[in-house]
Known about the structure:
By secondary structure, the chain is an alpha/beta fold. It has 5 helices and 5 strands; from the N terminus they run βαβαβαβαβα.
Amino acid sequence: MQSITLIVLGKLNASYFREAAAEYQKRLSAFCKLNIVELPEETIREKNVSQSTIQKTLEKEAQEILRHVVRPGVLVAMCIEGKQLSSEELSVFLEQRAISGEGSVTFVIGSSHGLADAVKKLADYRFSMSKMTFPHQLARVMLLEQIYRAFCIQSGNKYHK
């Protein structure tokens, strides 16, 4: 069974995000071994945040993210400048990783400020959900749904029409 890890920053504060994530986690248990590593988002207390402060915060978050990256395996940074995939393309991507023996795939979703360059540079792939900006809590639910959809496509399940 393929191993999928999500390394995410911040908690799901709203009950509707927690419920949606839990539902997709439950559904995914039939297709993969799912592990979600939830790391604390660094707090910035300044009102007028400088770019330097944001960079230092991202670097601190990156240190913690990189401690949880599992190798061997494939690391995917979810970032706005990444490649956009269709659901079918994500399905093929996951299937190819499983067939090639690189079965373990780790997706990283950064904090509200994004991901540090150190994480992006270490990543084997960079994917983007959209050119639009989404709250990172919603991004987690969207990614879980898309991973579930990808496995449904592979299995011929009618979930994906």
